[in-house]
Write a structure and sequence with these properties.
Strand order of the largest sheet: 2-1-5-8-9-4-3
Low-confidence stretches: none
Distance between the termini: 20 Å
Number of helices: 3
Mean pLDDT: 91
Order of helices and strands: EEEEHEHEEEEHEEE
Shape: globular
Strand content: 35-45%
Largest sheet: 7 strands, antiparallel
Radius of gyration: 17 Å
Number of strands: 12
């Protein structure tokens, strides 16, 4: 199985945000889609280990900010490469507004936001699929949405070619480079927390 085939599925990129008490948090996902039109419902799929998923399971509400092509890598570093259990992702960050449900949504490099209330949760093993009824939303700009493919080609920094006697594997998600004689099957990227299957050997 060539897992690279999955990267050709056309999907967008989003900041998924949630609130539990006074704690606001967010993460990067590429798994939001509309599932019905009357009433309007969307789905958002999130890894169970993600702190945002834990918050949504408890509160049953979230917001989605649709990332556009003007985004730079710093947006992905802020919301994708650390856990909200360890850091406040909104600390010192002012490119936000508060939706009617009290949850922050991102206004930087995003072209729309959607606020939704969870009506069903599907357990698919490593992830939860949240089915949610849309309660609010607005268009923020007319810029084109960033696809997962666009991110890999235009936003994510490309690994620098460095001569090394050791083998090198690069994370296809964030660009982290691992050096060693072999890449352990249970290796987890220290930056974006993706598994060894998302690494490829550099020539």
């Amino acid at each position: 199985m060539n897992n690279n085939a999955l990267y050709n599925i056309n999907c967008g990129l989003f900041v998924l945000t949630a609130k539990d008490g006074t704690k606001q948090n967010g993460c990067i996902i590429n798994t939001v889609m509309q599932v019905t039109s009357s009433p309007v419902k969307i789905s958002a799929t999130v890894n169970k280990t993600n702190f945002t998923a834990e918050m949504i399971m408890k509160t049953k509400q979230f917001c989605v900010s649709c990332i556009d092509e003007s985004a730079d890598f710093s947006l992905f570093e802020r919301f994708g490469f650390a856990s909200g259990r360890d850091v406040d992702k909104f600390n010192g960050y002012n490119e936000i507004k508060t939706a009617e449900n009290g949850i922050y949504y991102v206004t930087e490099s995003t072209n729309a936001y959607i606020g939704a209330k969870v009506v069903d949760v599907i357990d698919v093993g490593t992830h939860y699929i949240f089915i949610a009824e849309v309660a609010e939303g607005d268009v923020l700009s007319d810029k084109s949405s960033a696809s997962y493919s666009y991110y890999h080609k235009n936003i994510k920094p490309q690994p620098k070619k460095i001569k090394s006697e050791k083998s090198r594997w690069v994370c296809k998600i964030c660009g982290y480079v691992y050096e060693g004689d072999y890449l352990p099957d249970d290796f987890i990227c220290p930056i974006c927390k993706h598994p060894a299957s998302d690494f490829e050997k550099m020539e």
